[in-house]
Amino acid sequence: MFILKLIFKNAFRHKLRTWLTIVGITIAILAFGLLRTVISTWYSGVESSSATRLVTRNAISLVFSLPLSYEESIRHVPGVKFVTRDNWFGGIYIDEKHFFPSFAIDPKNYLPLVPEFVIPGDQQAAFIRDRNAALAGRKIAEKYHWKLGDTIMLKGTIFPGNWEFVLRAIYHGRDKSTDETFFLFHWDYLNEALKKTVSGRADQVGFYFIGVTSPNVAAQVSQDIDKMFKNSLSETLTETEKAFQLGFISMSEAIIVAIRMVSAVVIIIIMAVMANTMAMTARERFGEYAVLKTLGFGGAHLAGMIFGESLVIAILGGAAGIALTFPVSRAFGRAMDNYFPVFNVATATIYMDMASALLIGLVAGIVPAWRAVHIRVADGLRRIG
Amino acid sequence: MGKIPFSYSLRNLWTRRLTTVLTISGMALVVFVFASILMLAEGLKETLVQTGSYDNVVVIRKGSNSEVQSGIDRLSASIVETEPEVAIGVNGNRLVARELVVLINLPKRGSNKPSNVVIRGTTESSLLLRPQVKLKAGRMPRPGSSEIMAGLSIARRFNGGGLGETLRFGMRDWAVVGIFDAGNTGFNSEIWGDVDQLMQAFRRPVYSSVIFKLGNAADFDKVKLRLENDPRMTIEAKRESVYYEEQSKVMAKFLRVLGLSLTIIFSAGATIGAMITMYTAVANRTSEIGTLRALGFQRRNILTAFLMESLLLGVLGGCTGLFFASFMQLITISTMNFQTFSELAFSFSLTINIIYQSIVFSLIMGFMGGVLPAVRASRMNIVDALRAS
Amino acid sequence: MEADKQPIVEIQNLSKAYHRGSQVVPVLNDLTFDIKEGEFLALMGPSGSGKSTLLNLIAGIDRADSGTIKVGAVDITALTETQLARWRADNVGFIFQFYNLIPVLTAFENVALPLLLTGLSKSERREHVEIALSIVGLDDRMDHYPGELSGGQQQRVAIARAVITDPALLVADEPTGDLDRVSAGEILDLMERLNAESGKTIVMVTHDPRAAGKAHVIKHLEKGVLNVHPEAHF
To answer: Of the candidates C212, C204, C163, C210, which has an alpha carbon nearest to the alpha carbon of residue C182?
Structure first.
């Protein structure tokens, strides 16, 4: 391991320069990891999709509703196990800064569809029993210090007015990728109120959330449902939950592509910096390399030493960057929890970080190694004298 | 002050060409990203600000965040229409339009990926209220027909949106008979048709909004107060320019936050690159520094010379980055506005202000990278420096 | 001939020690002596004897621990760093063993460097530089970079730079140390001429007996004490 020791010592000959380079790489890997985590958060909805869940919406767009009468017809389609009516409520809690998703659903048919929402049995019963009950995710319950029995008021945007609910249940996510910021309440509660105030808007469903018996029948069931309502006043579009989520994401595709490109740019910037460092280092040691050549070390040896040094620096920086990614993304996730309900660092991101660090180390060493291999001994020795 | 000639700094950069190029490249990339983000935010702002007029008023249901969520019944619409502050047009008609705004899901050309597009049900007044909207090809849809006209961005990017093509929704076929160009505004991402026909097709009994022009722009506060306090309606009124500016708040903030964090991180990387370069330059020219001091140059002369070098690196990096960023103006971003869930197309916009900010930024990076090494150079002990090889 | 010249350098009780970690190594010990105007002095002695240190102190690029140095009636030990720099520009010319030319400047520009510290105009500077370079015999190489010149030529450029502001005092640290026999001889002749014709006082540190031979006075520095060299006065 003498070679390794030599490489290490060489790397730290110029302590300041080496440490600056390592800090630079740490920052780059950290930024890269954060950006990738932002993107994977976008896709976290897709991650937590189930292959046995479908979404049926109005074929024109989500802005249009479906008749309540569709529910029974859908329930009788072969392969359908559960179907629940579902309305995006879009309520505001306190003010626009505090945002969480709120939905009006049919608890008896909704809860079996979401086994990843873990609810204590007594709370679940209370939620189903009371018409004005609400079910909230652990994250928002903790954030706003809600306790079971609290009255929570939401201001309606799509459905105007002030709406009061009583918190009867809190769920926590079974998986790390489960969104724990949902606020759910009874569809009937919403509909009853609408019947009294704006009857024209009652008995309208935003979309249907459907559970099928197995993933294999998903495609067939989707087709069957849409065929049923073709050429009616409200034609439907049924797709798997994953396709539905992907559809949303693709609308922001430009932004996602931009972020991906930017994260590549980070790596390129730091590659330039690191390549610069190695080039300078190699230039200074020109004479030494010539001497080594006279002693019998071949070009391959020199290249190996240079790449070794470059990789040592890159790996140290990469390791520090990876280690810092966890606390930094925790802080970032807390600060931005309005925008990112789930902010976990994926394992794939860590692998990408490592690969990036190695790539940086290798690329930075190319030109210096090439030059060292092609030194003419006489030139090199002249430089020392 | 700067008695050591400028050519000294310049030639030293030229002598170490590879290092100089690499350091400048790092800085150029950072400035490129910095300028691009600023340009994007500016482009977004320009698009949305130009979309609304200062003397138009948008009336929507109280509490709704946008026209799409809003519903205004016929009674409320009539009340708004008869307000005295509504401007009168050249042919004696009131300049007020009842409009319907919904989203339809359309596939993009090429990728076929779906996006939500705004369909606006309009009247003849709508066009008068939006002077930015100009017919570019084809003709206006005939009132009472299933004809529609599409904004330039929609015609370009979406299947079925081009002149002569057809869209199908509400159990009817709608022919695109005209294309309009609304300049750099959000209307270019919309499809317009007859409001009554669309309301029928979508089975909507209520309008989304009422737009009118003020006879006197200063009357806004008066009208707003009266309309919002009228017990027969639950509405809110906003100036059209303000309404559209608010529609971009979330996106603008997102771009700003993302942009700022990225810039800080990147600039740290590039500054470190500059620091490494300059520390090495100082280390390699130690005996030169000693010589210059011996000849009688002051410490501050040495400091200035080295600082000049790194500032030069910064400026060159900044100009290079700006040069490449300016090409981004050829690109148009088509994405979903987070707030309205609808399609929005906007571009990168380069302003003098952005150029200025970018150069200042690159100078700051050059300074931060060079100041510590320059101080070290200036503080060297003459005898030790001369002794170095 | 030398005896009635005024002293241009007056050194009184000069002491300097080096600090290596916690160790204190005395180098110059309570030195007192004069250098006459127009004198050509060679300082010799074993390695580490402090002759370069003494040279550096006289030239104003190092600070003594105690004692005074007066050069032309100016007590340079009392000057601030800034004043010292200005003083050096006007009063001292340097000739180094390794020439110490700025590699990115041409011969012309290197020689012009000290003039940038004066108020001369560009054309005035050009005039002075051309004269200086012709004195050292290099006016045909003005636009060459140091890397394009031989060792002897580089040293001549350095000498031109050293005399351009017409300082009274020239200090040289092993001026021939890196030169071949022929070039060394040329440089020494040049220095001798500068001393004889222009009356410049030269203080030279050297190992080279041939260089010492050109000097009027040879002093021997050993263990911080200055003695007259066995080869004595001329």
So the answer is: C210
- Residue pair A116/A166 in contact (Cβ under 8 Å)? The answer is no
Q: What is the pLDDT of residues A242-272, one digit of tens each?
A: 998 888 888 888 888 888 888 888 888 888 8
- Helical (H) or strand (E) element with A351: helix A347-373
Co-location of A216 and A318 in the same domain:
no
Q: What is the pLDDT of residues B288-314, one digit of tens each?
A: 999 999 999 999 999 999 999 999 999
- Is the domain of A227 the same as that of A78? yes
Backbone angles phi, psi at B214, to 5 degrees: -80, 135
Confidence bin at A148 (pLDDT 50/70/90) = very high
Q: How far apart are CA B4 and CA C109, in angstroms?
A: 11
CA distance A221 to A208: 13
Q: Are residues A326 and A183 in the same domain?
A: no
Nearest to A26, CA basis, from A325, A347, A365: A325
- The answer to whether position A239 is within a domain reads no
Question: Would you call C105 and B11 a contact, using CB atoms and an 8 Å cutoff?
Answer: yes
Which residue, A170, A199, A234, sits at the end of a domain?
A: A234
B7 touches chain A (CB under 8 A): no
d(CA B14, CA C6): 50
Chains contacting C (3 or more CB pairs within 8 Å): B
Confirm whether A248 is domain-assigned. Answer: no
- Nearest CA among C207, C198, C138, C134 for reference residue C168: C198
Beta-sheet strands, E only, within chain B: 56-61, 96-107, 114-122, 134-138, 147-151, 166-169, 172-181, 190-194, 209-213, 235-239, 332-336, 343-347
C-alpha separations of B114 from A156, A247, B110, B159, B164 in Å: 28, 7, 11, 10, 21
Domain ranges within chain B, ordered by starting residue: 6-49+249-387, 63-233
Q: Do A76 and A167 belong together in one domain?
A: yes
Query: Which tokens is B121 given?
Result: 């049900």
Q: Which residue of B has its CA nearest to C167?
A: B295
By a Cβ cutoff of 8 Å, what residues of chain B touch chain C?
A: 3-5, 7-8, 11-12, 14-15, 287-288, 290-299, 382-383, 386
Q: What is the pTM of this model?
A: 0.81
Q: Is A183 domain-assigned?
A: yes
Residues of chain B with pLDDT > 70, as a percent, come to 99
- Phi/psi of residue A310, each to 5°? -60, -45
Query: What chain B residue is nearest to A272 in terms of C-alpha separation?
Result: B22
Q: Is C48 left (phi over 0), alpha (psi -120 to 50) or beta?
A: left
Domain boundary among A205, A234, A263: A234
User: What domains lie within chain C, and their CATH numbers?
Assistant: 7-228 (3.40.50.300)
- Could you tell me the two tokens for B93? 């008609």
Split into its structural domains, chain A has a count of: 2
Q: Is the pLDDT of residue A383 over 70?
A: no
Is-contact B352 B260, C-beta < 8 A?
Answer: no
CB B116 within 8 A of CB B342: yes
* B72 DSSP 8-state letter: B
Query: How is residue C101 annotated by DSSP?
Result: -
Best B12, B13, B295 residue to mutate vs chain C (most C CBs within 10 Å)? B295
Measure Cα distances from C72 to C36, C75, C159 in Å. Answer: 10, 8, 22
Same domain, A227 and A258: no
The Cα–Cα gap between C169 and B334 comes to 75
Within a domain: A54: no
- Physical contact, B and C (3 or more Cβ pairs within 8 A): yes
Domain ranges, residue A315: 2-44+253-384
Interface of B with A in 67-106 (CB under 8 A): 68-69, 102-105
Q: Which residues of A touch B25 (CB under 8 A)?
A: 272
Q: For residue range C95-145, list pLDDT tens digits in order.
A: 999 999 999 999 999 999 999 988 889 999 999 999 999 989 898 889 999
